[in-house]
Design goal:
six-stranded mixed sheet, 3 helices, single chain, alpha/beta, globular
C-alpha cells in the first residue's frame, strides 16, 4: 500500500490542558464503553487540573444522541464535586434543535458569542445553594 494513503485516526478523544475534545469518531451509540471512558477523563481533569473549569468540546462530534444529555448532566455533577465548573462547546444547530424539547435542564447559553466557529458555548447555571 502506498504511503500516500493515510490511515484514518481511531482516536475518539483529544486532551489538552483542561479541555476534552471529542473527535468525529466519538459515538456512544455504537461504542459501548466510550461514555464511561469520557466520564473518567472528565472526572480526572476536574480533580487534577488547577484551572477553575473543565471544558468539553463537542464541536467536532459527529452526532448528539439523546444519551449524551445524561452524560452531560452527570459530568456537571462530577465537576461540581471537584469544585470546578463544566463548560461545554457545542454546535449552535445542535443546541437549537434540542432546546425546544427542554432537555438542557441546568445548562444555558453563554451571553458572549462563541466566535466564528459556528459553535455555541453552553455553561451550567449556578447551583441553587450559591
Amino acid at each position: 500500500m502506498p504511503d500516500d494513503f493515510a490511515k484514518p485516526s481511531l482516536e475518539r478523544f483529544r486532551v489538552s490542558g483542561n479541555i476534552l475534545k471529542l473527535t468525529p469518531r466519538f459515538d456512544p451509540r455504537y461504542q459501548p464503553r466510550v461514555g464511561m471512558e469520557m466520564m473518567h477523563i472528565l472526572s480526572s481533569l476536574a480533580e487534577e487540573c488547577s484551572t477553575p473549569e473543565v471544558v468539553l468540546d463537542m464541536t467536532d462530534a459527529a452526532s448528539m444522541p439523546s444519551m449524551m444529555i445524561g452524560f452531560l448532566h452527570e459530568a456537571r455533577e462530577l465537576a461540581a464535586k471537584a469544585g470546578k465548573k463544566l463548560r461545554i462547546h457545542i454546535k449552535a444547530e445542535t443546541y437549537n434543535r434540542l432546546e425546544p424539547l427542554g432537555v438542557w435542564g441546568s445548562f444555558s447559553p453563554a451571553k458572549e458569542k462563541a466566535g466564528n466557529s459556528g459553535s455555541l458555548e453552553l455553561v451550567p447555571d449556578r447551583p441553587s445553594g450559591e
